[in-house]
Amino acid sequence: MNKPLTFLDMLGNAERLNQSLLCVGLDPEPARFPGNLKGDASRIYDFCAAIVDATADLVIAFKPQIAYFAAHRAEDQLERLIQHMRRTAPQVPVILDAKRGDIGSTAGQYAIEAFERYGADAVTLSPFMGFDSVQPYLAYHGKGAFLLCRTSNPGGDDLQNQRLASVDGQPLLYEHVARLAQGPWNVNGQLGLVVGATYPAEIERVRHLAPTVPLLIPGVGAQGGDATETVRAGWRPDAPIIVNSSRAVLYASDAEDFASAARQAAVNTRDVLQAARQAATPGR
Asked: What domains does the chain contain, in order, with CATH numbers?
């Protein structure tokens, strides 16, 4: 009997099959929907499914952001959407962007939500309550968990760039998180890190401290992150990166051609990322 694929298996397969490092983030805002979908929260599934269908052969992952669904009482549409992904793009892993950060039995319930209710392959987490906030997710063999490490927002400096007292000197907090994810917390090899594309030098620092874990890198496109610099800083032949673009793909057009425009935007970003990866490949 074949073993079920792990998140890392799916990630590697999607990267090879689709020749892609691009993740499309699904952050549906009904007010920005095109044409007759505009303003209609009951059509969130229809909009997102059209984006999935248009880009499924171009991506390494999809990343639905749960708040954009929950705010419109559309969790049932998110469930349908992930089921649709399984049917139409079974080779593409789904990362549920939830940024959960609680502990104990509450964390256990959030893990059930992510992996059993929605059937996601990975989830984003806030690690700042410690390993207790991560451990319940690791009980799901083969699932991935991405810890917030060095985020794109300016306010990230308030905590992530602060120095700690340590026997190893005075690491910055984000550096400490990277070391934990590479080392003692990564008991089953399931952890990854979230690092914003707007800080390429810090992506490179995280990659140095965590040389093998996957990096989820949001911020390319509308948030101003440079795709080429991102790949140079974070991609290594044995260390995957997942470069997320949301609004630049989803809202490439506000007309009836929104799905084909989204596809073209995804093709353009995918190709830039691929060119940067080829340039960074040893021996080229």
From this structure: 7-280 (3.20.20.70)
